[in-house]
Amino acid sequence: MSVLFPTNILNFSNQKYFLLNFRQLLFDFVISYCYFFSINLNFLYMENLISVEFPDADVQEIKTNILHIKGKLPQGLVTLTPEERRAYAKMGDKSIAFVEKALDMAQSFPQVLPVFVDIAEFKKDVEAVKVMKTILRQMEEITILLDDSILLAGSEALAAALSIYNVAKDAARRDVAGAKLVADELKERFPGRKHKEETPNA
Q1: Does the residue 195 lie in any domain?
Q2: Once rounded to an integer, what is the mean pLDDT over residues 85-90?
Q3: DSSP type of residue 178
Q4: Residue 38 lies inside a defined structural domain of this protein
Q5: At what angle do helices 15-36 and 119-173 cross, to 10 degrees?
Q6: Residues 91, 53: Cα–Cα separation, whole Å
């Protein structure tokens, strides 16, 4: 059974948008209602899924260690453009066994080695890939940990900021002292807001 909402109350462009935003709108409405009628809000607190702090000394030590690691990397490492990355063949995990066997065969049977293949450089490339993959896997564990934590902490912070903004807007409509200033300040920095260019006075 479909449910019809008065257009003067809800003006969403489509049902999908409504479903995605209804929970946040309901939450903000309840917060506003409880705030202005002095109702205890403890039951509304969202679960805090992440709570971390970085002492300044630890942050500095991490940065120093990163610089130390970068200094230990060999000078021959390169940075490729997106076009260059697309141009080169990629040796994936499934190709490693094939490449290592080819190196072993070339060393055992030099008669099959093409004249343009430098066996010493071939071996150096294979060994370098193994070492770099080991280092990269350990670095990826750290980057994934940081990336996921940034996403979750940022999501919680954004949800809190949006709730504050919506309460401030509602409070401003009720002429609560200071609420309009808060709402206006947050409105100027609202994500995706396009600032209109100021036109000179005639």
Answers
A1: no
A2: 92
A3: T
A4: no
A5: 50
A6: 40
